[in-house]
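User: Second chain of the day. Same drill as before.
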Amino acid sequence: MKCYRCSNKKLWKLKSGKYRCALCKTSFRPRVAGICISRNILKKIVSEFLLEHSTNVILERINISKYKLLKILTLLRIVMTKDLPEVFEGIVEVDETYLGGQMKNKRQKERLKLGKNRKGFGTIKQPVFGILCREGKVYAEIVLNTEAKDLQPLIEKRVKKGSIICSDSWRGYTGLAAKGYVHRFVNHGKKEYSDKKGNHINGLEGFWGYLKRKLAAKGGIRKEKLSLFLGEYIWRYNNRKIPYKQREKLLFKMLMGVHY
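Assistant: Same format as last time:
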């Protein structure tokens, strides 16, 4: 944390809960996204958010305006989205899925092209591409299409050359061996991935199921907000084995790192 006036990092904590800059003597409360809020209230919001309580439940339990709460919840999702794995190596699984439903008619498609689709993501089929390392870390990104020209640049950016990539036989993955990867095809079994040696490779299938359950529980999400919720559930999934209190401290520290 630093002084919002002179950026000095040497601060004194006062009994009132405020901080005073040792250089310019300015007294202030910590600010998150331009909002003055006490650390105690912020910790409570992080705790309630990690427990996946609804906005209405949090408002009942914490004395804060809805405007401030929604702004902080958005910021939480933003910092979660930025805390994602960058490079994968070793044995890696790649897969694609679709979120939402079918585009029902030509008129709806035309509205989508014109940017007039303002309903939840359930009104369209949104392609999402994912990468998972055998250690359990996952990365996913919204894509416009699932052809080779769309997926392979993402793979080259996120997966280290020489890694073993496991995929189905979708044409979007054709040619990976020529790009410096060991490419292994797997067969789709009933609700599982399985290679010809009997080894199960179903990590991404598990994540897709988890993601779709969580999004469905929200009752529909606006298309422009989908990337934030995707980032949130990737973070939750990647940190699922960390004890709750440790996750709470980690997320609070990430949030406090974006004061000004």
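Helices lie at 39-50, 55-61, 66-82, 106-113, 148-158, 203-217, 226-238, 244-256.

User: Great, on to the next one.
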